[in-house]
Design goal:
Blueprint lengths: L7 E4 L1 E5 L2 E5 L12 E5 L6 E8 L4 E7 L2 E6 L4 E6 L4 E5 L4 E6 L5 E6 L8 E2 L2 H7 L5
The chain binds thymidine-5'-diphosphate (TYD).
The site of thymidine-5'-diphosphate has 6 residues, from strand 4 and strand 5.
């Protein structure tokens, strides 16, 4: 079973010029899985928290395209916190971790690269159920 510390920051190449910056995310080399889905969250009110679930199989990379995103990952025992605000950095989130996303600033846009297509059966949305899944209770 994965631990909170199995998550890590991936740095992407960033080409910075006077006319603006361009960051490059390359499948297979930068991302540790085949990308089957891309989704993004916009228009999230400042200070809103989202997530509050875990995935059984899904692997993700979370990239803050704009603003500041706080991410707390929890394996049922240890919590790891990240503050994402660099547009050329992504957070790899392995399966089996409870996550909370804090949209710290008004302009926060969160891009997610995912290893699987959407499947509600892959979600655990109840924290006690998550702890049971992690065999931390019972
Ligand atoms: P969810 O993954 O719960 O996001 P968050 O935890 O940030 O609120 O998704 C929110 C809603 O969107 C939920 O009803 C499921 C739906 N959804 C899809 O239909 N397809 C998708 O690819 C995703 C990510 C979510």
């Amino acid at each position: 079973m994965t631990k909170s510390h199995d998550s890590y920051i991936i740095e992407f190449d960033k080409i910075q010029r006077r006319e603006g910056s361009l960051s490059v995310v390359q499948g297979m080399t930068d991302i540790p899985f085949d990308i089957k889905r891309v989704y993004y969250m916009t228009d999230v009110p400042e200070g809103s928290k989202r997530g509050f679930h875990a995935h059984k199989e899904l692997r993700q990379v979370i990239i803050p395209l704009s603003g500041t995103l706080g991410v707390t990952l929890d394996d049922g025992t240890v919590k790891t916190k990240f503050i994402l605000h660099r547009t050329n950095e992504g957070l790899y989130v392995p399966p089996g971790l409870w996550r909370e996303l804090n949209f710290v600033s008004e302009d926060t846009i969160c891009l997610v690269l995912a290893s699987e297509r959407y499947d509600e059966n892959d979600y655990i949305r109840d924290y006690n159920e998550f702890l049971t899944y992690r065999k931390c209770i019972q």
